[in-house]
Amino acid sequence: MRVAIAGAGAVGRSIAGELLENGHEVLLIDKAPTAISVERVPQAEWLLADACEITSLDEAALQRCNVVIAATGDDKVNLVVSLLAKTEYGVPRVVARVNNPKNEWLFNESWGVDVAVSTPRLMSALVEEAVSVGDLVRLLRFSHGDANLVELTLPEESALAGTQVGDVEWPQDTSLVTIIRGTRVLTPSREDSLEAGDELLFVAAQAREQQLEDLLSVRREDAAS
């Protein structure tokens, strides 16, 4: 897979390193000469250019990329890069970094963004996840279909503890994708039972999040009455 990353700062270089370790082809683009540090990620291709200019993206052969990641520290730049990648070059997958949570509403399919990653939101979500059991935590927003990746740790008193996945009437437009149980990562089947303390990851429509949280948080005594 060929991936172009706009922004060769610490974030961009870190992403590049991970992708290269997984066998992908990576191009780093940055307009600042000081950001071009080939020795830090020697396996990557490097391009000194402005990723907001069509001529630069032509030089980068963006049409050959499977994924473009807009990872600069400027939300305006990330939006422009995303829009150009999607509309001018037809890149199948565009991932954009959101620096200011106030701008998050802009990072959607109208701007060519398939997945928006908000570092401040993700950090706050991880803090919430660490201290809250039974509360739904939004980890990641997908632009298409208005869906989110959400997490909830099943409380000890949940009525669903001990219930098989296939026996649960999940809300519409939600899908249980992973169960994290201790150090194990489980792909859920209908026969798997839910256990108290399980971290459950769902892809869910935003409009269904409250229903999902209510379902998972119902106490045994409330369900019995």
From TrEMBL:
<keyword id="KW-0813">Transport</keyword>
<dbReference type="GO" id="GO:0005886">
    <property type="term" value="C:plasma membrane"/>
</dbReference>
<feature type="domain" description="RCK N-terminal">
    <location>
        <begin position="1"/>
        <end position="117"/>
    </location>
</feature>
<keyword id="KW-0520">NAD</keyword>
<dbReference type="InterPro" id="IPR050721">
    <property type="entry name" value="Trk_Ktr_HKT_K-transport"/>
</dbReference>
<protein>
    <recommendedName>
        <fullName>Trk system potassium uptake protein TrkA</fullName>
    </recommendedName>
</protein>
<keyword id="KW-0633">Potassium transport</keyword>
<keyword id="KW-0630">Potassium</keyword>
<dbReference type="InterPro" id="IPR003148">
    <property type="entry name" value="RCK_N"/>
</dbReference>
<dbReference type="InterPro" id="IPR006036">
    <property type="entry name" value="K_uptake_TrkA"/>
</dbReference>
<keyword id="KW-0406">Ion transport</keyword>
<dbReference type="Pfam" id="PF02254">
    <property type="entry name" value="TrkA_N"/>
</dbReference>
<dbReference type="InterPro" id="IPR036721">
    <property type="entry name" value="RCK_C_sf"/>
</dbReference>
<dbReference type="GO" id="GO:0015079">
    <property type="term" value="F:potassium ion transmembrane transporter activity"/>
</dbReference>
<dbReference type="InterPro" id="IPR036291">
    <property type="entry name" value="NAD(P)-bd_dom_sf"/>
</dbReference>
<feature type="domain" description="RCK C-terminal">
    <location>
        <begin position="137"/>
        <end position="218"/>
    </location>
</feature>
<dbReference type="Pfam" id="PF02080">
    <property type="entry name" value="TrkA_C"/>
</dbReference>
<dbReference type="InterPro" id="IPR006037">
    <property type="entry name" value="RCK_C"/>
</dbReference>
